[in-house]
Amino acid sequence: MSDVPVIKMRPKGRAQEQRMLIPSESMVVDALQSVPTGQLSDLAEIRRALAAKYGADACCPVTVQRHLVHISQEGSAPFWRVVDPDRPFARRMTGGPDHIREKLAGES
Fold it and tell me: Does 53 map to a domain?
């Protein structure tokens, strides 16, 4: 699916602005499917890659987290590859930290 990127200008510092990508869920799903199996990747790197791909300076972390929660409920992409089971955010995922650990272990 080809989504039209939504990029909003937001303040950065006192006199600067930043182009912020507001990704769609399908953009996040596509990014997750490119993560190598069996290893935990950096969620911040996924956001940086999305921002670079769509010509933005940054990618909205709140939107990405909301999409990840929904993706974990739907089971539409391997969210466990970017959610650190030792971080508090993992508790918001379907199945929680233990499910993430099991999925990662099953891929190794």
Answer: yes
